[in-house]
Design a protein that fits this description.
- The protein is mainly beta.
- It has one domain.
- Helix content is 6%, strand content 36%.
- A hairpin with a 7-residue loop joins β11 and β12.
- It is globular, with a radius of gyration of 23 Å.
- The termini are far apart.
Length: 322
Amino acid sequence: MKKLIYAIAISAIVFTGCSKDEVEPTVVKPVVGEITGDITANRTLAYGNYTLKGMVKIQAGVTLTIEKGSTITTDKTTGENGLVVLKGGTLIANGTADEPIVFTAVQKLAGSWAGIIMYGDAPIVGTASVTTSNSEDGLTLPYGGANATHSSGSLKYVRVEYAGLVITSNQKEHNGFSFYAVGSGTTLENLVSYKGNDDGFEFYGGTVSGKNLISYGNADDSFDWQDGWRGQDNTNWFAYQTGVANYGVEVETKSVNNAFFPKVTNITLKRAAGTTTEAQSEIQLDAFQFKANGNGDFSNVVIDGFASQTTPTAFNGGAVQV
């Protein structure tokens, strides 16, 4: 028995010693790099810290992939900066809950850069029932088509901070995330738009849907859509307005028939006490504002801190299903 106990003790020591000799996990150091100019060939940005300079455009037929945990920083003193996915281009930026992909600015001030802008080939409804249009963001780029399942890529666990740049030449503002005619083949999940100078998220037509979207502290509308956006699989939208902000959700088409009724389930719109609107002469105190035949299908809605509308004429042909 003593020999057996001794043998077991020796075995325990041996196994314990082996565990100490195990190879430690390799620590991956972030690379340091720069993103500038047009992206004309497929490119993967390894986990790292990057500086984004200029209006970087991902060309048609090209894919830019950004690895999880990466941080992309802009500097307003270098000029107008933003990440643009042109019609036919693809952006794959899939972070995780523990390792999100963060776009930020050196200045940490609203309006420091242009945010993420996607242009797609999905249907839109514009003035006089047009099916294509040029963007209103100052870049005047084409969007819209007939491919409802078009894909501009995948965004998961991405945070955009301090966007809302005003283009100097024409005073056009950018949002945190702008989706122009983006199709349902695109994945938008677990996204945060943080303290921008314009809307948190804006959809210009298209069929894409977003899940788990957070708009925090953006100066205009938290969520906005127009041009007959028709996303049908949206869920878990949260907005928190503080400081200066306008509508929780602004809904618009182009004063033409819009029978699409985009659907959003589980939407929370909260406005902090003392929050003021951008233009004090305008009534922009509402959680929802509908105009030009804008409509939607909403369920499980929580609204807190917004004033009531005192000018009913603001609802110009709008419709809502709750």
